[in-house]
Design goal:
- The strands form two sheets. A five-stranded mixed beta sheet has the order 2-4-5-7-6.
- Helix content is about 30%, strand content about 30%.
- The protein is built from three helices and seven strands; from the N terminus they run βαββαββαββ.
Length: about 160
C-alpha cells in the first residue's frame, strides 16, 4: 500500500475527532479530557493518523475503568511530535505491555471484551510507516498510557 503523504493541520483533525469521542465517553459514563497543541501542521497520511488516534480512543473506552477520565495529549517538543492516550484500567499491567502490539495478541484475562487483537498491530504499522515509535506504559498501579512519538516535519 502506497501511503500518500501531505501536510495537514493535525491539531484540527485530532480536536474534531476528540470532540466526537467525547459524546461516546459520556454515554459510557466516562470523561474525555484533551490537550491538543494548536496549529500543528504535520507531513503524513491524514487517513492513517486519524485511524491511529481512533484505535487508541476506542481501546481506552473499551478497557477503561468505570467512570474513568481518559486523557488525550498532542504536543510538539524539539523535533518530535508526542501523542498519548491515558486511562485508568482494570487490566493486568504487570506484564510486558509491548506484546500488545503483536498481531493477533490477546491479553489473557477476565475482561470479557471481544476483539481480534489487530487494532494495536495496525497502530504500530501506521507509526512505523511514519518513522515513529509506539509504546505502552504503566503509570502508577492502574493507569495505562499508550504513546506515539513521531519525527516532526511539516514537509518532505
Amino acid at each position: 500500500v502506497k501511503m500518500v503523504m501531505q501536510t495537514f493541520d493535525l491539531s484540527a483533525v485530532y480536536a474534531e475527532m476528540a470532540a466526537s469521542f467525547e459524546g461516546l465517553a459520556i454515554t459510557n459514563g466516562m470523561q474525555l479530557k484533551y490537550h491538543i497543541e494548536p496549529d500543528i501542521h504535520f507531513y503524513g497520511n491524514q487517513k492513517y493518523l486519524s485511524e491511529l488516534l481512533s484505535i487508541f480512543l476506542e481501546n481506552a473506552l473499551k478497557y477503561a475503568s468505570p467512570q474513568a477520565v481518559i486523557t488525550l495529549d498532542l504536543y510538539r517538543k524539539a523535533n518530535r511530535l508526542y501523542l498519548s492516550v491515558t486511562n485508568p484500567t482494570e487490566q493486568d499491567l504487570n506484564q510486558d505491555l509491548n506484546h500488545w502490539f503483536d498481531r493477533f495478541y490477546r491479553q489473557s484475562g477476565k475482561s470479557g471484551k471481544s476483539g481480534y487483537g489487530l487494532g494495536l498491530a495496525i497502530a504500530k504499522a501506521i507509526t512505523m510507516a511514519h518513522q515513529g515509535e509506539i509504546s505502552a506504559h504503566k503509570k502508577g498501579e492502574k493507569t495505562l498510557e499508550m504513546r506515539v512519538i513521531l519525527p516532526y516535519r511539516q514537509s518532505k
